Amino acid sequence: MNAHINIIPLFVIIPLAGAFLTSLIGRFCKKLSDLIGNVVTMTLFMFSLYAVYMANKFQVLVYEVGGWRPPFGISLVLDGLSGFMLVTINLIAFMITIFAINYMEKFTTKWKFYTLFLLMLAGMNGVVITGDIFNLFVFLEIASVASYALVAYGTEMDELEAAFKYTVMSSVASIFVLLAIGILYAYAGTLNMADLAGYLSQIPNAIVIKFVMILLIMGFGLKAAIVPFHAWLPDAHPSAPAPISAALSGVVIKALGIYSLVRIFYNIFGVRQEMLNIFAFLGVLSLMVGVLLAIGQWDLKRLLAYHSISQVGYIMLGIGLGTPLGILGGLFHLFNHSVFKSLLFLTSGSVEYTTGTRNLEEMGGLREKLPVTANTNFIASMSIAGIPPFNGFWSKLVIILACLQAGKPGYALWAVVGSILTLSSFMKVQKYAFFGKLKEKYTNLKEVPVFMTTAMIVLAIVCIIGGILILPGVERLFIQPAVDIVVQGAKYKDIVMGALR
């Protein structure tokens, strides 16, 4: 078992090494930076699949950094939830780096993109595997700082303005999180998550803990762009180049926001009904506000950004129900949204790459010239709208059934209404961008290069077959281990400490 534990720190070491090598030698050869970036993300994706296998086999693996035994030393923890998140993050990262081989050619310093992207990836992986709440903050900041630079990557006025707003808002979120961690440490005298869970279980109703919870909801809510903490996202995500937008909406807000909320509120604080009620309410608020703001947008990427807010609402609703079925639906939708939203941003990047515009009113008939882009965008659009048999349908169905099972039909109704409005929004995208008469200025367009189409096709295939992940037997391999860890609540401390014995 000790040999298997050594895989855990590689999820941080490998991308950090890749970022270092790219910054060192990538500047001399664009192809070399492409090679390093894609080898790193492919390796991490393969390792993440192995991590899921190991989590199924051993339930929990704990790596003691420097040989110091927790809670006195820093630990890295691999369980069903972290394995699930590692696959999600590194699958999307791999597809993004493939897409970037062609797309980032129009930027003169491609090596800087890969360096920053791999740093961001190291931060996200670190957030997922750390067993220490302060190191969660450290990894969160590594990912955040890299993402600030990536949003401003094009250095145009709009991008710099969006990056500045994103930096300010995200820094405020980080202050909330750091303040909460400081109070917890002063109160409990430990930073190890499992040890902290054991201490807090003895004094569950202390006023100071409720104050810490509020700080963390605001901090991680800002990172996840949950309404009413969403103001930065509609500017930041559209302004960034398409691969970066795909990463931000696809996995960054999940790893830094949603995952952190789930891990801390379920596995450290334990299940508290008042907090779950807040999660569910914020989820419904986000899914409705996001989709209503998206409907009126004509900038394609801005429209997608508002839908990220809406779809995160579905995830929060499922998690906030607190039932095994609701958590299953929330986590399943987290994975599905990562796939179809990344695909939507990549297809929007392909449209902008060929036409030079993001304005839907300036498009039309692009299906004729961009068949791969059009068809993959259609698949992703049907997925996000919850149309069967695409993956988004199954996760939304589970969430709606979970609402009914939990005796909350009103929430189920809002989830259905949100899905209908999402469908209408993406029908507008299909009508104005890909159907209708081709404009004369686009008669010489050609489909985007092979690496861009490859990434889009792979993600489209996942959208089509992703529903099988919920089938009995199959879900036991990937999603259910993550659900089991969340459902255990504060018993997480016993699982982790048991793995150390």
| Total strands | 2
Structure class: mainly alpha
Biggest sheet strand line-up? 1-2
* Order of helical and strand elements: HHHEEHHHHHHHHHHHHHHHHH
Number of helices: 20
List low-confidence stretches: none
Shape: globular
How far apart are the first and last residues' alpha carbons, in Å?
Answer: 13 Å
| % residues in beta strands | under 5%
What Rg is obtained from the alpha carbons, in whole angstroms? Answer: 21 Å
Major beta sheet summary? 2 strands, antiparallel
Estimate percent helicity.
over 70%
Structure notes:
There is one protein chain. By secondary structure, this protein is an all-alpha fold. The protein is built from 20 helices and two strands. Strands 1-2 form a two-stranded antiparallel ribbon.
Topology summary:
Layout: H1 2-5, H2 10-25, H3 30-58, E1 61-64, E2 75-78, H4 80-103, H5 110-129, H6 133-151, H7 157-188, H8 193-200, H9 207-224, H10 233-239, H11 242-268, H12 273-295, H13 300-321, H14 324-355, H15 371-385, H16 391-405, H17 409-434, H18 450-465, H19 480-488, H20 492-500
Antiparallel strand pairs: 1-2
Helix pairs in contact: 2-3, 2-5, 3-4, 3-5, 4-5, 4-11, 4-14, 4-18, 4-19, 5-6, 5-11, 6-7, 6-11, 7-9, 7-10, 8-20, 9-11, 10-11, 10-13, 11-13, 11-14, 11-19, 12-13, 12-17, 13-14, 13-16, 13-17, 14-15, 14-16, 14-18, 14-19, 15-17, 15-18, 16-17
Jot down its keywords.
501 residues; 2 strands; single chain
Summarize the structure.
By secondary structure, this protein is mostly helical.
